[in-house]
Structure formats: structure tokens, C-alpha cells
Specification:
Layout (H helix, E strand, L loop, with lengths): L7 H25 L9 H22 L1 H10 L1
């Protein structure tokens, strides 16, 4: 995001999409008890699931991606 300042909103949208696309994998890790990336307990994996939507919103808000989507949707 630092390098592509001119396309910051699009990068934010791509990042939000990435977080959305990996969410099913995170649910699978939780339901199957798979350890990865230091998440070695069900509690840690569950907490990550609650922060995933926060990351999506943060990516859109901090880059202006939300405004970009709204303005292009109205056209």
C-alpha cells in the first residue's frame, strides 16, 4: 500500500477481498483444530475469526476503498 499511493483505494479493496477469501480457511482451521501461525489453541483461532471482519472494514476505511466502491456503484 505504501508503494502504490496512486492506487491506494484499489489496493485496499484487494486487501479486503483477500481477507474475505481466506475467511473460510480460517473457519476450517478452527473447526478442525489445525495449528498454524502460532494459533495453537481453539481460543486463539476463535478470536481471529472475530477480528477478520474488523480487518476487512479497516482495509476499506483506511485506504478510501469504501468511498471508491460507493462512488463507482452509483455511476
Amino acid at each position: 500500500m505504501i508503494i502504490l499511493i496512486k492506487h491506494k483505494a484499489k489496493v485496499g479493496i484487494a486487501l479486503a477481498l483477500f481477507y474475505i477469501l481466506i475467511f473460510p480457511g480460517n473457519i476450517s482451521q478452527y473447526t478442525n483444530g489445525i495449528d498454524a501461525f502460532g494459533l495453537d489453541t481453539d481460543q486463539k483461532r476463535l478470536i481471529r475469526l472475530f477480528f477478520q471482519p474488523v480487518l476487512v472494514i479497516w482495509a476499506l476505511w483506511s485506504t478510501g476503498g469504501w468511498k471508491y466502491l460507493i462512488s463507482n456503484f452509483k455511476k
